[in-house]
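Reading a protein record of the kind used here takes only a little practice. The record below shows the convention in full.

——
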Amino acid sequence: MGEGEHTIIGRIARERLNQIASRKLSALGVPVRLGADRETLEGELGFTGRVVHPVSGQPISRSRFVVGGHDRLSFIDGPLAALGPIDFYQHDRLPAFEAAVAAALAALHGQLEEVAARLRALRLEVVIDGERLQLRAVVKAPGHAFEILGGADGARVSRVAPVGGRPQEVAPSFPPLDLRRFGSGAELEDFLVASLPQMATQPAVSPAPAVASEPPRQLEATPAPRNALTLARLAQVFGEEAMLPPNAMVELVQEFQFAGTRYRFVAAREMGTRFKGRLIGPSGDVWADNFELSNFPGTRMVVSLALGAPSAEAVGPGESAVDFSGASAATGEVPQHLQPHPGEVWVMNVVVENGGPDEVRYVGTDIDGRPYGAARVLKRPDFEAVFTQARGGWRLLIQIEQVQEGAVLYRQLDQARQPIGASRKMASAILVANFVPEAAAY
C-alpha cells in the first residue's frame, strides 16, 4: 500500500473500515463481531492443520484475533500473537491465508532460533518461551545481572539488577544488541557494564519520598473470570476422587497482582505428578522450574518468594503453608534461637537425583534430611565449584556477613572455605528454611 493510499484510509470513518473488513472476512468464511468497545472488530479463526506450533510441533486449532483498519488482523493468543498485524485482504480463499500465517510463524521461529544460536555461541544459557515466541538469557557480571530478551527484532536488554538490589527496567531508548560484534561472553559482559549509564531510565518527576512506616506491598490473587472453569468447579461436579490418566495434558493458570503489576503463574503437566512451572511478568519469565507435586510448597509461596513479596502474604485465608522448618518459614518470623549471627557458617545439604557427565540434577533437603522443593539443574563444573562433597552427600556453605531486620547478607564459600563472589541478600525466613548452622549439620 502506497503513501497516498495510507492517507486516504486515514480519512475513512472507522465504521466504514469495519464494513470493508467484515465483508472480506465473511467472504473468507470467518465470522466477526464488534468488541466491548463497540468499535473494534474481533473474532476467532479456526485452522485446518497447516498452522503448527513451532516449539511443540502440535497443530494450532484456533486463535482469537482483532481487526486493524480494513485489511489486517492481529492474533491475541500465543504463539500467534507474536506475529503482529497480518494482511488478510490479499487472499481470496481461507486456505491461502492459513498458509501465509503458517509461513510467517515458521519464519519468526527461524529468526528466534538465529538469535538463540548467537547467544549460545557466547556461552549463555537460553530459555525459549514457546507461547510468546520470546527467548531469555541472563549475563552475570560481578556487580550486576543483565536480563536479555530476544525476538524477531533481535535481542534487547530488558532489565538490570545490581547484586543485592532490586531489578530496574532498562530505558526503551537503549538500542538492540548487535550480537555479531561480540566474540565472547566476556566482551558482551564488558559492553553491558560500560553501558550502564545509558540503560538508566529517567526518574519520575518530583518522586514522593519514601516513608519508613509505609505498609508492605500486598500480593493479591486475581479472582478467576466468572465463566472460567476452576478446579473447585471440577471437584464439585466430578468429586474429589476423580482422577486423570497418567499422560493427560493439564495446564493450570492463576494470576496475581503485586506492586501494580500483573503476573501469571502457569503449571503444565509433563507426566504423572511432574509439572513445569512458570511465573510470567510483563518482561517475560520471572521464575521457571520443574517440580514434583509432592514437593511443591504452594502457588502463593512460590510467587511470593519469586517477587520478593512479604512472606506473610504467601499464605492466603484458608490455605496452609508447607512447613519448611517450622511455622516461621511461612510467616517470616524467625524464633530467637534460630536467628543467624555474623561470622557463622550455614549449610544447605542437597541430594543429587541425576549426576551425568555434563549436568547435575539436585534437590534440597529440609532440616530432617528429607528432600523438598523443586529440583534444579547445573552444569557439572558449576555444581562442583559451588557444592562440596561430605559424608556421601553434597552441601553448600555460606558465611553470614551482616544481619539486618528480617534479612542477612552472606557470601558463598568454595571448597577451601574461601569467600567467592559478591555479597548477596536473603530473607532470614528463607535462610532458616533452606540452611542450618554448620555446627548442627553433623
Remarks:
- Residues 1-12, 204-216, 311-332 have pLDDT under 50 and may be disordered.
- The chain has four domains: 3-113, 122-199, 219-322, 336-440.
